Amino acid sequence: MKKDFFKRNLLLIFARNPVPGKVKKRLAASIGEEAALKIYNHLLQHTMKITRNLQVDKWIFYSEEIPEKDIWDINIFSKKLQQGKDLGERMENAFRSGFEAGFSNIIIIGSDLYDLGEEDLKKAFLTLQHSEAVIGPATDGGYYLLGLKSIPSQVFKNKTWGSNTVLQATLQDLKNHQLIHLEPRNDIDRFEDLEKYPGLLGLISTKNEEQ
Fold it and tell me: Which CATH code, of 1.10.287.110, 3.30.70.20, 3.40.109.10, 3.90.550.10, is assigned to 2-201?
């Protein structure tokens, strides 16, 4: 029974290819592209560590291309490419692929949440067993996690992705669904976010003279 339970669960991980100038652009404006890349690579490592032992299927979706070598063990993670014109369409297509593959409970996360742990993800999957949807609000007005049993028609459409309106617009789309809220968490998009984590700050040089 327990084995069947896990077989129905799928974790989607959205990641950007770690290339200078392509990741953490708002953060790079303050600390420089190379420092922002260093932070992002550390966050990717964190995401890999908290998901690798999770007893669900795991698909990692790259933004640009699937590299030959990376940190994601092919025996644990299936590697795929995001498909779509914007983030909403890319997420919807990823969910749709999961449901078409026979999964019943699908959760999506990004790859840059330092506050997220393996136990949080276990809790999210357990929560989704007893609800139609689960959402993890981000403190910047977006969300860091979304779990669904089906794809509501508007949830990935008509959003200004990356803005502080995404969460409220998504909640409006899900108002007629049984939705469980997780604890709010902090995304790392700006220098003010980074300042809350001395361990991450220590990764970058204080002598960085870039903007």
Answer: 3.90.550.10
